[in-house]
Write a structure and sequence with these properties.
Length: 130
């Protein structure tokens, strides 16, 4: 479809003059054929696939450090966001941090539920006042 430069009407392809005002329509530029696209690559190599694992003792030591209440949380935050040069330790810290956050949210929801149940049970009267 082409627009008439004189009146602005959208003219069909098969006409060379505007049906409304009769002005000649501008020539349509030739269309370029799209460039061929390369074949899709279904498996892209990730640099994180070949990360050497921590030894058993390094993993145990890291988990024991994470078990210290406040220090472990701070250490997992630090190692999760890049203060560890070992990528396997960084992944372990990220997994521990996610686990800690999920456990904290679930525990908070349980405490809120128990508080609501306790408040509801204490606010009702189980006896009749005469």
């Amino acid at each position: 479809m082409r627009y008439c430069k004189n009146c602005g009407l959208l003219a069909p392809y098969d006409t060379d003059r505007c049906p409304q005002c009769g002005a000649p329509l501008p020539c349509e530029p030739p269309r370029q054929s799209p460039a061929p696209q390369p074949a899709p690559c279904y498996k892209t190599p990730h640099p994180e696939e070949n990360i050497p694992a921590l030894s058993e003792w390094a993993t145990l030591g890291t988990l024991l450090l994470f078990a210290i209440p406040v220090f472990g949380f701070i250490l997992s935050l630090a190692w999760s966001f890049g203060f560890s040069k070992h990528p396997a330790r960084k992944r372990l810290a990220q997994a521990w941090l996610i686990r800690t956050l999920v456990v904290t949210v679930v525990a908070a929801l349980v405490w809120i539920f128990l508080a609501v149940v306790a408040a509801a049970s204490f606010s009702t009267t189980y006896y009749y006042a005469y």
